[in-house]
Amino acid sequence: MATIFNSSKPDDVIVAAVERIDLTPAGEKIAYSSLGGGVSSDIWVVETDTTAFCVKRALSKLKTAADWFAPVERYKFEFAWMRTANAIVPGIAPKILAVDDEAMLFAMEYLQPTTHVLWKNALQRGDIDPQAAGECGTRLVAVHAGTAHNASVAELFPDNDIFHAIRLEPYLEATASHHPDLHDQLFELSRHTAETKIAMIHGDVSPKNILLGPNGPVFIDAECACIGDPAFDLAFCLNHFLLKCLWVPAKRNEFLACYDAMASAYLKGVDWEDARALEARAARLLPGLFLARVDGKSPVEYINSDKDKEKVRRCARTLLLDPPTRLADVRTRWAQELRNER
Length: 342
Fold this sequence. Notes:
The chain is of the alpha+beta class and 342 residues long.
C-alpha cells in the first residue's frame, strides 16, 4: 500500500477507493491536494512521483446558504457525458481513467493549470477573447448534433430527475418565490425544458467549468448531464456573458462580443432541427436564468450591489413578461439597461 505523505487528506472512503482503482504505482508515496469542487463535489488531485490524476465524488448536500440536495448517483451521468462527448469531439473533456461504484466516484486525467487555464479566471483578469467563445459554441453544438435523437446515448441517461433537482428547481422554480407575479412564466419554462428531450446536454456550461487548453476548450463538471434541451446549454453559458458585464464593467463590449460569437458559432451547427426554433427556446430561457442568478438558490458571487441586482431584475422581468424569440433581442435589451444609470 502506498504512503500518504502530506497533511491534506480526504476521508477514508476516497482513500480506499484510490487503493481499489489501482492507478498509483506500487511502492510510490501518494500526495493528496484538494481542488475544492465548488458547491457540489469533492475533487482531489492524487499525485505520486510518476503519475497524477483527479478523483471526484458528488455531495448529497451542496455547499450553499440555502438547503440544496441532489442525488449522488449523478456521478454516473457525469462520466457518461465525458466519455460520450470525447468520442464525438476528442479532447473536449478529461479522459475517464476509472470508475468506483462503491464510493460513487470516478478518476480522470489531471490537466495541469500551467497549460489549461480556467476560463473564468482569464475573464476576471480582462483576458476576453470572443474567438474562445466561438470555439466553445462550435464544440458544444457538435456534441449536441452527435447525440440528438440517439437511442443508444439516451439509454445512458434513464431519467432527468437529477437535472430537475440541481438545475430547474433551484434556478427557475426557486426564483418564483421571490417574484410571485412571475410564477406561471418561470414554472412554464421549467416544465417545458424538462419535457424537451432531444440530445445529451452538459447542464452547467459556464466559464467556471471550461478550461482553455492548447488544443481548444475543455469542458468539466458535467454533473447535471442528461437527455434534455440543447437550448438550455446554450442559454446557460450565454447568461454568464451578460452577467459578467457587471463583473468587469470596463470590458462590457468584449463580453457582449463573446455572447455574439458563441451564439453565432453554435447556431451554425444546428442540423437536427430548425435553428430558429432552438434559438427561440434559448431566448425564452435566458431571462429566467438571468433572474435566477440574483434571486435563485445559486446567486453569482460577484453581483452584490442593490443597484446591479436591480438592473438584472428590470431586464429579466421585462423579457419574461414579453418573451423574446431571438438571442439578439435579449442582448439588445441588456445593453440598453447597462446604459441606464438609474
